[in-house]
Amino acid sequence: MYSSTFVFKAGQFDDAFHRLDKEIAEAARAIPGYLGEETWENASAGLIQNIYYWESEAALLQLIEHPAHLAAKSQQARWLDGYRVVIAKVLRQYGDGGV
């Protein structure tokens, strides 16, 4: 399993941002190999994290190469006050099943 974590500091969002954000989320969910997502916010630091989980690196690359993702990436300075992306190979996950 792979994860792609998009950490960002929000700037000024407009209709174009919300449209692209929705299009990217819908595209991700439609890719075979998409396993799920989570969003977290650290209000004190002003950071938001969107984490997507993937069955394979090939599935993840489909989102990275999607036209909506490329459009958002090329325009990120319009909407964000900084960002970071972390791509990771997940070795294991475990818990008590309650989450």
UniProtKB/TrEMBL annotation:
Which SUPFAM superfamilies has this protein been placed in? Dimeric alpha+beta barrel (SSF54909)
Q: What is this protein called?
A: Antibiotic biosynthesis monooxygenase
One MF term in the entry's GO annotations: monooxygenase activity
What are the alphabetically sorted keywords of the record? Monooxygenase, Oxidoreductase
